[in-house]
User: What shape does this take?
Amino acid sequence: MRWLKTIFYILFPLSVVIGVSYLFQELKDPDGVQPQSGYQLSSTWPQLPDSFQLGNPVGLGIDTNQNIVVFHRAGKEWSLTGSFSKDLIAANTILVIHNQTGNLLNSWGSNLFVMPHGLAVDKENNIWVTDIGLHQVFKFTYDGKLLLKLGIANKPGKDSTHFNKPTDIAIAPDGSFFVSDGYGNSRIIKFSPEGKYLSEWGNPGSQPGELEIPHALCIAGNRLFVADRENNRVQQFDLNGHFIKELNSLSSADITSATTDIAESKIYTIDDLSFMKIKHRGSDIIIADTNGVVLNRFGRSSNDQPVPAWFHDIVVDNEQNIFVGDILHNRILKFEKLPTR
Assistant: This one.
């Protein structure tokens, strides 16, 4: 077995050198797409109170007035080992921020959540969230009255009444809704408007229709888009769970979220380029048509980030301004759409 030891002593140092060199190499466009963004990062948005502590802005949504709704973790962190405190977050975790001024309009959500994750706002301005610490999904009125709660608190599972770290929600035009479940299960669950379990699909894997951490959801027309994070792709399904297509050429990095514009003609995705989830190299905003043809890319690839970022969620308003939550530096960024020349 001496030859095995010899190979080990040769390959192990080489792997360390390669890994370290990856950590310190300069950022480059992984896919070779040259960006011409047509966007400008706002230097004055948001305008939160000086005393306010913004935590990881993990979930973003837009209300009917085009204001930005944020789900954040205040001072709580999810460590690289996967551990976090089971205590409820004492600070307000739901924020409403004015689209134009960046002023804080409202906040609520104290002592309700353990580890915030996904957020969606429906056409009636109800706010839906997922908590991966409680393994639950919640629906609230705009000002915080509880309307619906699914899942059993602190009890993960994989059946019609349990979740295992659910990541996001998407609401269909008829009021039915979908939950991506999530970190612990690789499935999408469909519920009736009243919260009755209807169906589910998905298994771990990389084949079409399979999932490795379904991380975010959005609906455009009769299609459900799933950010299949660990498979570096977005998958499209119909609203009954039938696979339509996969968009697998958007990025070679993890796809963390996806959304569409008001015309539902473009899909906006974000990625996270990292080394073993330890060294984050930056994020891109990728704009593509619904067939996955990349139209625009900026952020990490175009050196529009003064420091590396880790974009976790994205929303787009009616003017095509883009808002992203950066959980590496606990900030919300607004990329303003520039006038077409």
The chain has one helix and 25 strands. The domain at 30-337 is CATH 2.120.10.30 (Neuraminidase). Confidence is low (pLDDT under 50) at residues 1-35.
